[in-house]
Description:
It is a single chain. By secondary structure, the chain is an alpha/beta fold. It has one domain: Aminopeptidase, CATH 3.40.630.40. It has helices spanning 17-33, 124-127, 152-169, 190-199, 236-252, 272-275, 292-298, 301-322, and strands spanning 67-68, 74-75, 85-86, 95-97, 109-114, 130-132, 136-138, 173-176, 204-211, 221-225, 265-268, 281-288. It has an 8-stranded mixed β-sheet, sandwiched between helices. A two-stranded antiparallel ribbon has the order 2-3. It has a two-stranded antiparallel ribbon with strand order 6-7. α3 crosses α8 (301-322) and α5 crosses α8 (301-322). The structure holds zinc ion. Zinc ion (ZN) is lined by residues 8, 115-116, 143, 152, 209.
Amino acid sequence: MSGPRCVCDPRPVRRTPALLLAPLVAAAAALAALPSSAGAAPVADAAPAAVVVPAAGPTPSSWEGGVAVPYAPRWWPHGRSNPSAPWASGWPKPVLFKPTARGELSGVRIALDPGHDLGNSSHISAINQWYWVGLRKTCNTTGTATNAGYPESTYAFDVVARVRRLLNAKGASVVVTRDRNTRATYGPCVGARGSFPSQQKADLMVSVHGDGAPSSGRGFHVITPGVLQGYTDDIAAPSRTLALRMIDGMRFVGLRSTTYLSSPLSVRKDVGTLNMADVPTVMVETLNMRNAADARLASTAAGRQKIAMGLYSGIVRYLRATR
Length: 323
Ligand SMILES: [Zn+2]
């Protein structure tokens, strides 16, 4: 949207201590249920071993064959000729998921970006650091939550895992910007997320979020980069096409588009993840977590699977039209 209200901004989240603790309790239970050897991920090539940390909350807890990408990508802040912002040690790590079958998408590589991280709210000084991403922006934000306290970061992490499984089963490789959702990590910064897909030679990237809009409105919208010379002038047109196909895909599975914006297509020049991207990239605000009906969708596995199917359908539609 182009108005003053910023999606995914760190609005005050009203959570009782008990609600705040609920995801941690779930995470502890998940950790306790794991055998001691569960921390070792399958390692391919020269990739470093990844330590598996189950996401907190009702979200997939298995690694499912993912491997750490062979190097930690760096990103290039505006005006710098040398990489000066490495993938920070406190960030979740990027990870690659290889296809689980051959199929229509064999040879395609998709980047997925689950928004925020559960630990952003406990690393406030780090995520409030300023960076240049076509405009001055902070590293990241805390994200929003349902009124019952289900965090956007956990929701996005779960949905991305579901989309990734669908893509892998159709033959696509999937690279994901973060491998965990814990209070111990934060970020990555939005500039790193944006520069991730081109460094990973991905064909496109979809960043997955849940909005924190007024509770009266519901439904998804898709943010596509406007033309920002030197940044998005090369990807604005294909990203817009991707955004339109994402809207088609979401509608195809029966998801409703936004009731609180005038259009499900939002063109913006102030989203760091989009500004720093060099492949077609969109950000999908899949629902409004503050709305009761949308919160019910977000809070059930069936609801999140439906969202994932919509995202998957959009990606496939775009690839069919452009390959
Ligand atoms: Zn967000």
